[in-house]
Design brief:
The protein has 156 residues and is an alpha/beta fold. The chain has two domains: 58 residues, Ubiquitin-like (UB roll); 83 residues, Translation initiation factor 3 (IF-3), C-terminal domain (Translation Initiation Factor IF3). 38% of the residues lie in helices and 28% in strands. The strands form two sheets. It has a four-stranded mixed beta sheet, covered by helices on one side. A three-stranded mixed beta sheet has the order 1-3-2. The longest helix has 18 residues. It is rod-shaped. It starts with a strand and ends in a 7-residue tail after the last strand.
């Protein structure tokens, strides 16, 4: 048996339970496979609360991934393409992931090659800021490509 304000020693279970009861704490088995099993006298509710608090803190500090979408058409003009490219670069610099897709409306589905060429051109233009995670792939009426930001290394 171990614990705060308790002498580490070997005790029968009945004595250990009585001692924990006298202190107003719980007897918790922490190493059941040891010979003899090791128990600790502690406030179990407080222990659970602290554990939950630590998990919440870890979760809060975890990086949240933001996915921004950029929609193109198979016949998107150069000016519109450059406009969307500037936005994509800004999103990548902020650390967001990109989902770039070409949406085929109606009969424009016959221009699949144009859509793929456009996405590959887009990937080539932003290769300094991000790397392609998933190359263009058709999903229904959309051709989708994912881009993740590159890690920025600071030079001293």
């Amino acid at each position: 048996m171990v614990g705060d304000n308790v002498e580490s020693d070997i005790h029968p279970i009945r004595d250990a339970l009585n001692l924990a009861d006298d202190l107003g704490l719980d007897l918790v088995e922490i190493a059941p496979t040891a010979n003899p099993p090791v128990c600790k006298i502690m406030d179990y509710k407080k222990f659970l609360y602290e554990q939950k608090k630590k998990q919440k803190e870890i979760k809060a500090n975890a990086a949240k991934v933001i996915v921004k979408e950029i929609r193109l058409g198979p016949n998107t003009d150069d000016h519109d393409f450059n406009f969307k490219l500037k936005h994509a670069i800004k999103f990548l610099q902020e650390g967001a992931k990109l989902k770039v897709y070409v949406f085929f409306k109606g009969r424009t589905i016959i221009y699949k090659e144009k859509g793929e060429v456009m996405l590959l051109r887009f990937a080539q233009e932003i290769e300094d800021y991000g790397k392609v995670e998933q190359f263009p792939k058709m999903e229904g009426k959309r051709m989708i490509m994912f881009v993740s930001p590159k890690k920025i290394t600071k030079k001293n």
